[in-house]
Amino acid sequence: MAQASTIAEIKSQAQHKMDASIAALKTTLSHIRTGRANPGLLDTVHIEYYGTVVPLSNVANISVLDPRTLSVQPFEKGMGAKIEKAIRDSDLGVNPASMGDLIRVPMPPMSEERRKEMTKIVRHEGENAKIAIRNLRRDANEHIKKLVKDKHASEDEQKRAENDIQKVTDKHVSDIDALIASKEKEIMAV
């Protein structure tokens, strides 16, 4: 954390970094497979394009055909076979099928055991995000204590600031709980 000179700056930085942690968790959760088709699932697939490895979304349009099927439409005619191979070789466990220029990617149904594994992964990611939020709270409180020690703030201001930071922390932790609960519900829906 860059050295903030006021309590307001410390609180603002903590809030901003906690918001960034929530955004990172949302991104991570969007890549975790549920039984439903989601274009974000193919974000990890990369393909060689004129000697450069690029994300699949740079060479094709990815969309949802129905709740269990993604469609991949290459921007160039000759890319279909390469794209299909890259998706098949990925660790997603999907089996794409070409239909002319369009590649269909059906999502296989997940077993009950696999769903439970996925919820454990989701909970683990949520716990990591909570740890990050708590670390940010600790860092902010330490910076405030340093301001008081250096006589740039009073102890009353310190108490108020620590209470404010705790409220922000509690709000972010409850946001994480809501995201996790929502993702678990999505995973367990058959």
UniProtKB/TrEMBL annotation:
Any Pfam family: RRF
Primary location: cytoplasm
One GO biological process term: cytoplasmic translational termination
GO molecular function, one term: ribosomal large subunit binding
Keyword entries, A-Z: Coiled coil, Cytoplasm, Protein biosynthesis
Keyword Cytoplasm in annotation: yes
GO CC, one annotated term: cytosol
InterPro entries assigned: Ribosome_recyc_fac (IPR002661), Ribosome_recyc_fac_dom (IPR023584), RRF_sf (IPR036191)
Coiled-coil intervals: 144-171
Annotated ranges, domain Ribosome recycling factor: 25-188
Family: Belongs to the RRF family.
Role: Responsible for the release of ribosomes from messenger RNA at the termination of protein biosynthesis. May increase the efficiency of translation by recycling ribosomes from one round of translation to another.
Name of this protein: Ribosome-recycling factor
